[in-house]
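Agenda item 2: 2-acetamido-2-deoxy-beta-D-glucopyranose complex prediction
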Amino acid sequence: FGTPEQELTVIFDTGSDVTWIQCQPCLTSCYSQQEPLFAPAQSTTFSSVSCSDPACSQLNSPDCSNNTCVYTVTYGDKSYTNGFYSEDTLTLSPTDTLTSFFFGCGVNNSDGFGKVAGLLGLGRGPASLISQSNTKYNSFFSYCLPSTSSSTGYLTFGGEAPTNLNSTQMLTNSSMPSFYFLGLQGISVDGTQLDIPPTVFSNVGTIIDSGTVISRLPPEAYSSLRDAFRQKMSNYSEAQATNLLDTCYDLSSYDTVEIPTVSLEFEDGMALDLDASQILFLVNGPSQACLGFAGNKDASDVGIIGNTQQRKFSVVYDVPNQVIGFGQGGCD
Ligand SMILES: *[C@@H]1O[C@H](CO)[C@@H](O)[C@H](O)[C@H]1NC(C)=O
Ligand SMILES: *[C@@H]1O[C@H](CO)[C@@H](O)[C@H](O)[C@H]1NC(C)=O
Ligand SMILES: *[C@@H]1O[C@H](CO)[C@@H](O)[C@H](O)[C@H]1NC(C)=O
Ligand SMILES: *[C@@H]1O[C@H](CO)[C@@H](O)[C@H](O)[C@H]1NC(C)=O
Ligand SMILES: *[C@@H]1O[C@H](CO)[C@@H](O)[C@H](O)[C@H]1NC(C)=O
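Presented output:
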């Protein structure tokens, strides 16, 4: 961010729009982060956004303080960021520079973001990086999330779709305009389709979100998946559950482990076949390996395909053509 560049590590989140970073002077509250806080005063291209700027009105419920546009974002887990809406140069790579990029300078931020400096909002709403860079990248981007911290992934804006993708329609719900919806309608375990009425999914919809770790299913769908998974895993010793994950095993004493396959099935016939690294979430290495899905509390809560289930795939978002594609071996 800024000129000269202040290099910062951020989360990228396809489930929200506003990009923000913690800023100096941190007036109210900042969590500790790995790099120094962004210093607007040291950037020659920085300016704050006035309340009458059209960019301010693209925010959800903006505020105005001393004629500066004030943004607030509250996430699903109740974490939040709040501060001054700002404008500066954003350099994504030596060849990818966005001038006059709008983002939040957070001076009142809760915990819950680890040690990163902030977040890139890659949602579909007008304030997102995707919408702001539409003329440059045509709302096309892709990424691969590696399955271990020692392997690498990528995030690319613009360009062409990789070949050999399995694609499904990107759906829209105008009452939640930031989200990328997919038509999830069923789940198979070891090739057998679970007995879940498709309306359990379609009544609430399912989004794909790089910023959620564990996928969330409607309660009825989750209990059906959990029961089938437990039955297939009944020969393995159980391990303690966590707050979110209720189906865990101690696999540390086995040389080989056979995990049932899980396949997510979509309205237009696409199937997403998940392997062990996309099904199990290792809370504590192999001694606490848990089914990496959770049930929503309420049958009316939206479903989420989270990042545990996306890792190792190329995930391609083609907004103009309303398509999301998945490719095997994306991080290879
Ligand atoms: C409002 O802006 C003026 C002029 O920049 C500044 O002197 C004043 O301290 C600001 N007030 C607050 C409450 O930030
Ligand atoms: C900080 O943000 C939270 C969440 O929006 C808000 O409730 C609180 O009043 C803010 N604190 C200050 C000092 O603005
Ligand atoms: C959009 O979401 C709302 C709120 O959850 C829901 O009531 C409505 O049925 C959804 N619309 C479509 C077209 O799915
Ligand atoms: C559990 O182990 C027994 C004995 O080795 C085997 O016959 C059975 O098929 C296994 N069950 C499952 C669900 O793998
Ligand atoms: C794509 O579909 C093919 C054929 O159904 C399947 O073999 C492959 O595993 C799928 N790829 C992904 C990423 O799910």
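Discussion summary: Residues 28, 72, 80, 82, 108 surround 2-acetamido-2-deoxy-beta-D-glucopyranose (ligand 2) (CB under 6 Å).
Owner for follow-up: CH.
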